[in-house]
Amino acid sequence: MPDPPGVTMRLGLLLRQSHRRAAGALADVLSELDLTNRHFGVLLILDRDGVSTQRDLIRETGSDKAGMVRTVEELEKRGYLTRSTSAFDRRVADLTLTEPGQAVFDQARRGAAKTAEALFNTFDQEELAALEDLLTRFLAATGPDE
């Protein structure tokens, strides 16, 4: 059954507006810690994975190479992550969180959780689960690079 005219365009606009609202609210909270959304994304992935590379961070965040280089350098200068030569490929640097990096991420995560609660307080748990399922299916159907 074909979509009613304009539904796809409205959904795209709603997704964009929703992202801008959520990203703006998160940026406000993170600014208190002198972090950006990009910093938070890197810290989130390093906390989740334990170790990563710039190439993997670029792929997972959708960042450009120059932006990721700057972000990693900023986090390293602040003492939030370390680089070490990969055991598998000497040309690649493994990135890991430091103790101060874990501490600032834990603060940022608490702020992000409060922000998420405020953004999603009109949804019940069933609705949130349905939204997460729909977005997960959307991303799986469209692929990581689309």
From TrEMBL:
One example of a Gene Ontology biological process annotation: response to stress
Domain HTH marR-type, first and last residues per copy: 8-140
Pfam families in the record: MarR_2
InterPro entries reported in the protein's UniProt record: HTH_MarR-typ (IPR000835), MarR/SlyA-like (IPR039422), WH-like_DNA-bd_sf (IPR036388), WH_DNA-bd_sf (IPR036390)
One function term, GO molecular function aspect: DNA-binding transcription factor activity
Protein's name according to its UniProt entry: MarR family transcriptional regulator
PROSITE patterns to which the protein is assigned, alphabetical: HTH_MARR_2 (PS50995)
